[in-house]
């Protein structure tokens, strides 16, 4: 604080001694010490800290200004009243106000560069505080301008305080005090301006009274006027001293502060001073600070400079005072039109436009050309500002008499006639760009009257030039047509061209009305003019292609409501002539598109246009058929005329086939003949081959359109049968790959829906319901034989679970994975799982879940809840064998026929089971990093009766088990793996891992040497008798395709373990689809 006090400086009037009638001034610190005894705990203050009354109302200036509930003038009036009662306490309140506005509460240690203080805090409350803060200072000076500011106490103290704070190294003090000082200066400038006006008035009154004759002169009035003039001069001098103190003590140092916001405040306010009191401030001594700051490295500061200058150049009376500044800094201002900050570039262009408006001689041709090319900028505000400059420079008429005389003329002789010619010349001379749509859009806001004068444009194109008038060249006519079409598009669509702006915005009611009026106006005009324009320029492909863009912007109802069918016939006639004359793709496509627009079913003219279109196609199809016959008959002897006839006619038909369904003319047949002849004989010209291929392509596409429209037809029925047969054959070839294909197709549909609607899907929407319905239909394809489709259904669930938890939510684990909603689709397949498999799949699902996920019940977690419920229902008995069931089932009857297994066989099975897990890695891997186990068994401990059956089969087929163990092609079933993992977790603690180790070691070593994954019997593998009974039971459906048993001599390859990432990577038998 001592350093801050040193920064305060005593202000006095240079060159003038203190008044003898006034008491010597004291510094605020001296006055505080001498009058400290008179200060009491008044106005709710205790030990210098603000207090509140019993009702909690704000009592300090900072709180009142912050809340902004009271009118600022009443707040200032209350302070003035307290100042009159005790100016020390009132001034202390004002000092505390500035300190608190800096964010200081008196007990904090701040970082120097901390940006956390009221002026920089975000939110509407603090934005309002800044406005109230500035208003308070202005109102304070305005209310004190007649007495208090001249008491040599308040202003001295405030200016000294702000000067000291502005030199602080703490950013908050420096920023707040600088803003306060600049607003204080602005208020003092206004006071000085009023004093100057009063001085001038008093001086005139004094001169008038003094010039009166001696007899009529009022000496007392002269004395009063003289005294008043002297008092005003003293006040003026006092105010000037205050302003000098603020300018030299604060502005000169802070306009180049390290903080951009502080520099911007200084530049903004000096602009206000120069505009408000130009006689005192609009000179080079002050303008130089703005000119220097045009080079500021921060765009925010450069922007304030430009806006400050704009307020000056707007007043043409100030141009003489700005002449030297303009000459000195003009180049810098022009170069700022290319500023990297778009906002700065826009304001720079507007400033250059103001300079041009004030004095055309101020800018050279080179300066203007630097701005001209910006009309082609992709940034629309820059382009529009450049368009305003171009309009001022080229299209503004400055001769009122000539303008009045030309206003009575219309068409090519109207005032816009020459301006349109100038626009065409400017467009052609633009060497950097050739985008007419961008040029029109840039000029649209400033030159609409010119750009909408379509009558003048068409007359310039249709009428012959009058005597003495230079005719337009072919290049100029092409440019004018292109510009005219762009103006039509802009008027009809009422939005910028592609590449300008962020998209279509909603039009206001006024803009919508203007759009409708413009569209009606251009339709009424060009319905008549367009056939004449096509007739004149029918031989010019470029002009015709542009002119044929116009009908798409018509209000086609006007043809009927305005009874203008004859003009429609004229248009159709001209289009037919154009098609017959041209073979250029652009022209033919434009004609085809025009027919397509005019044939729209919503308009009454559709029948008339369709008849003309059909007649045209009939003529060309007949010509094409004859020319093809001639060409094929001539063969290798065909001449150029035969080739040209086929090629030209085929080009026309191909262009029309692109936008029109011509399948009823059967163009495909002759195109196919041409292609087949080319293949067989190799003598068909390449251009004919290309056109024939393209025409055939369009024919096929139109056939597909008919199929996909969903109308009942033989195509739909045939297509449905093809899909059904394909699914059936795929399922017979490989049920697991078929299931993976089905779930993959559902995943792709789900991904497309997420891309369209975002991750927060509406589960009740038609799109989601459609995917669920498709899943339900897919589930029906598995039929009623759950045993046969067991592996396939389980694999489908596995892939679906992995897909649902493939990605984590970026917001954290408390939020559902993005694909969690897919579980609701997957629920449609839960009914196809066996009861014991439901629990296995449920266990696999739980590997992906955290405790938090299991406890969530919000709506976004409903797919998980629904899917878990579908698995839990009916899945409690996981130990039940596939072949077990009710006592009346066939499987049970088969087991009853078999004998009870010997005890020693059960012991061998147990040893095999325990030994097989001996070398297995006992860590349980997460689903994301599944690895192939070293040795795995899927043999579950069943009742002795079932084991006995296996022993009998084993004894009847010696060597089968060894072949099974050492066959590297056979892989474990994933269901068996999951069940064995559950069983192993339950029995692990009771196993004797050393039991039977010697007997199993050789098998393990053999498997590891072969580098193949060891395979053991799945719970699905049962005896031959059981398989035969199953075949008898399901023979009315489809052939049973169970995983092969080790008891069968001719075994096929087992299904891969799709829960094993290694197996997934090595699997090459599928369709090459990515695994999730």
Automatic annotation (TrEMBL):
One of its GO terms (cellular component) is cohesin complex. It holds the Pfam family SCD. Residues 215-245 form a coiled coil. Residues 1-58, 875-914 are annotated as: Disordered. This is Cohesin subunit SA. PROSITE patterns: SCD. Residues 895-906 have a biased composition (Basic residues). Residues 881-893 have a biased composition (Low complexity). One of its GO terms (biological process) is cell division. Its main location: nucleus. It is found in: Nucleus; Chromosome; Chromosome, Centromere. Belongs to the SCC3 family. Keywords: Cell cycle, Cell division, Chromosome, Chromosome partition, Coiled coil, Nucleus. It comes from Otus sunia. Residues 27-36 have a biased composition (Basic and acidic residues). Residues 251-336 form the SCD domain. InterPro entries: ARM-type_fold, Cohesin_Scc3/SA, HEAT_SCC3-SA, SCD, STAG.
